[in-house]
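Final report, section 2: Outcomes. Of the targets proposed, YceI family protein is the one most frequently requested by collaborating groups, and we therefore present its record in full.
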Amino acid sequence: MIEIPPPGEYRLDPARCRVGVSGTHLFGMSTVDGEFPLRGGTVLVGDPVTASLVTAEIDATGLSTGDRLRDTELQSRRFLHGREHPLITFTEGRPRQDGAQWLLDGVVTVRGTAGRVQCAIDAVTLMPDGFTARAATVVDRFAFGMTYGKRLGGREFTLTLDVTALRS
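The predicted structure is given below as tokens.
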């Protein structure tokens, strides 16, 4: 269910946000799940809601899959190149309605490469001091220069966002 928040400025609460990532490994025979920490972000809810703007910063160096060796490899130059590019950013986020579905279009920058993404918004629930939202998108890692291991790992991965935004 999508509830439209009242217009105003909200901040994403990193302690109550989850950025999950899921992709395939070993020729698609297994799934690898992980999580990035959210550093922060803002949601400026406009009137009308389609005039809203969303920004977020994700800590690329904090990716955790539960396997220390895999996490180190994913931080290397072959993939996220976390030392050189410690942030994944989401900017220009604008909501729009497509039939019964709400979408959030924006620009993601990974490894210094920017690309457009479209997140499907699954739920927005109002709270007394803000709102929670759930959205997901599929990202092509090759589009962001992560082409190493083409045959070992899947080309696409799913990002799932569970966020809490509090009135500023």
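The beta strands are 8-12, 18-25, 30-36, 38-45, 53-59, 87-98, 101-110, 113-127, 130-140, 156-167.
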